[in-house]
Amino acid sequence: MVRILLAALAVTLLAAPPLAAEDRVSILLPPDTVTLADGPGMAVTETQCKMCHSLDYITTQPRGPAAQWHGVVAKMKTVYGAPIGDSDAKAIADYLAAHYGPPR
Fold first, then answer.
1. Non-local CB neighbours of 103 within 8 Å, separated by 6+ positions
2. Taking the CB of residue 10, how many other CB atoms lie within 10 A of it?
3. pLDDT tens-digit readout, 48-97
């Protein structure tokens, strides 16, 4: 019985036409209201982080030392599945520590 149901479901899914462009759902994100501080690593940080959230999210985080930012970036990769390579992750964390670390 289960095999028959699975076969029927497979036939139904395979027979369904693909969605037309006008039927696809798109999400319009609000514009960023901040600009990241200029410096080495800013471009990769902006590009990689904006894939999942606004840049406002970065600037509203508590300022912390490098270890904190490396932990945040590691969490984005391992917990939330951010597609960030190891070299980009290091560049992002280093950038965030340099520009959004503890006040001097």
1. 63
2. 10
3. 999 888 899 899 999 999 999 999 999 999 999 999 999 999 999 999 99
CA–CA distance, 73 with 60 (Å, rounded to integer): 15
- The CATH number assigned to the domain with range 20-100 reads 1.10.760.10
- Under 8 Å CB-to-CB from 95, ≥6 apart: which residues? 39, 40, 41, 42, 44, 45
pLDDT at residue 20 in the model: 64
Q: Provide the residue ranges of all domains of the chain, joining segments of one domain with +.
A: 20-100
pLDDT tens-digit readout, 27-55: 776 777 889 999 999 999 999 999 888 89
Return all residues near 11 (Cβ < 8 A) that are at least 6 apart: none
Task: For residue 39, give both structure tokens.
Answer: 């410096």
